[in-house]
Amino acid sequence: MGDYWQPTAEMFSSLFTNPKMTKKHLMRPPFKYILHIIIKTMKVQGFAQGLYTEEELDFAYYQKNKMQKLVFLQKMIDLTEMMTGESYNISPKSIAAGKECEKTNKFLQGIYKAAIHGDNSEGT
Asked: Phi and psi dihedrals of 85, rounded to 5?
């Protein structure tokens, strides 16, 4: 099923217009794109405040060490699973490598659900 990206696009398009929710990017989301989605969601919804340092919210931080990407993603996976009560059954390695894109989109949808739920995730 090739339309797994559409619910993700619809959800996040209701929050912001940039980054654009395009089929090209959501079919196999690169780390930088995912980072932008998360940062924008944090700014718009006040979600996950305090989860990351300023350095971790700068893309340049991830260009030297792949492990830093995995830590970033694992933090968001853990928070999202805790906030939604769902398991996304995906590893940070799979997301960073552009594998299991359907699961990555389900995870992004989970971020959206957690962000709009309204519970305070600060300091979590």
From this structure: 75, 15
* Residue 122 covered by a domain: no
Burial code (b: 16+ CB inside 10 Å, e: under 16) for 94-112 equals bbbeeebbebbbbbbbbbb
The identity of residue 64, as a single letter, is K
Q: For the segment 101-114, what is each residue's pLDDT rounded down to a tens digit? A: 999 999 999 999 99
The CATH number assigned to the domain holding 110 equals 1.10.418.50
Q: From residue 52, how far is each of 14, 47, 79, 109, 122 by CA, in Å? A: 24, 11, 12, 20, 11
**How many domains would you assign to the chain?**
1
With 0.85 as the threshold, say if the pTM is over it.
yes
In a domain, 35, yes or no: yes
Return the closest-CA partner of residue 6 out of 18, 23, 28, 20. 23
Is residue 1 in some structural domain? no
